[in-house]
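Quick one before lunch.
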Amino acid sequence: MTEQLTVRNTTSVPILDALSDRWSPRGFDANHAIADEDLTAIFEAGRWTPSASNTQPTTLVAGVRGTATFDKIYGTLMDFNLAWADRASLLIAVTVEHERDGKPLRWAEYDAGQVAAHLSIEAQSRGLHTHQLGGIHVDALAEALDLPAGRTPITVIAVGQHDDSDAVSEEIRARDASPRSRRELTDFAQIER
Ligand SMILES: Cc1cc2nc3c(=O)[nH]c(=O)nc-3n(C[C@H](O)[C@H](O)[C@H](O)COP(=O)(O)O)c2cc1C
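Model of the flavin mononucleotide complex:
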């Protein structure tokens, strides 16, 4: 049985549902397929993310489960991610250009992070979950995707539907069920009102 576990974060005031409900499971439903409209919307959300001087240094390369691109991305994850990411419905490689016309794009990775954030929230608002992965073999991923010189993979984002049934290993289910925490608001943000 597949269950949509809702983890609502404790916030001091209400915030957007998709933000307070977002978390990063490792247990995904290996039979789930993302509807076409949801798939397109995820990338639209990323496309409309702001970037420094609108330079748009981020390019996403993605494959749904069962495609050659999915397998290429999956094959370059670090061991601890290989244990669960194969059950995701979609794997997205986030790649950036660090310079253009000989000039550095100083905020390229910052911009890429925003793309990841925006598309994650769009996915969450559509009942999907995302899990970002820094544990990737960068050179192997660049080679597997045949990226042009100057474009570097930064992260991979797994997208899918959470599954906490026994189709998922006990270890992964225990990690998904473990408490999540954050720094206190007063430590995170020093605000003068
Ligand atoms: C840039 C980045 C890299 C991450 N790398 C990994 C990873 O390689 N493997 C993994 O299981 N989780 C990875 N995570 C997930 C974080 O551990 C997770 O987002 C964090 O613990 C907060 O949990 P939450 O997303 O459920 O709020 C990564 C997250 C980010 C943003």
